[in-house]
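Journal club prep — side note

Before the paper discussion, L.F. wants everyone to see what a predicted structure for a comparable chain looks like in token form. Sequence:
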Amino acid sequence: MIATKSRTAFLDLLRIIACFFVIVNHTNSDIFLGTTPKSLTWFISLTYFFISKIAVPIFFMISGYLLLNKIDDYKKTFRRVFRILIVIIACGFIYAIFRTYYNNPNPSFSDALKRFSKVFSAVPSTALWYLYTYLGILFMLPFLQKMVSLMSRRDYHVFFAISCFFVSILPILKHFFPEVAVNKNFTLPLFGGYICLLLLGNYFSRFEIKKTKLGFLISCVLFILMLAFNIVATYFEQQKSNSDYLFFSN
């Protein structure tokens, strides 16, 4: 059964929640990075750092919910691409000016222009990475729209299972057991994490989901268990003096 596709208030609520978590994600890390790993502050800060990691998946799922239910022509797609390009260029120019003139005793406009010229080869700020990823998704959007229009519910389930294994489970297995490896020439670009999140959002839009108290309880328990795993695993990674001890943040 196809779910209604009209805009609903819960999407705006999800955006508000995700925006708040983005702020937490970009400001909170200084707390646990600057405190003793065994302290209560470290554990509390790391906990809501991991909770805030649901922000980006929420944004991708909303995009899939709204954009994959139709088949747009190329003209509309390139209008979307053009708008994001304008935003990237504008933000790149602002960051180029700021980083050239802020705390710089000998700033020059030519240095700012050199920085700005790299707006497409380098991200001006880590806070802008989402724009570049979203730009790539927009280029793929017409083809993804046609693909999902032919997918059945079972197709989604198989797609999610394959994506989950190669994007989430396999990297963790390889992290703990380096001998678990896949030939580097074996690639599955279609099953990348962001594409999976887009399709997951579209899945919630296309199909009715049976809502039960038991299902909600199971979801909450799984979320808490995964959160606990991330915190405990990160603690032991830090104890090993691993420079990449935030491996589990992804």
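L.F.'s comment for the group: DSSP finds ten helices and no strands in the chain. Keep this in mind when we get to the figures.
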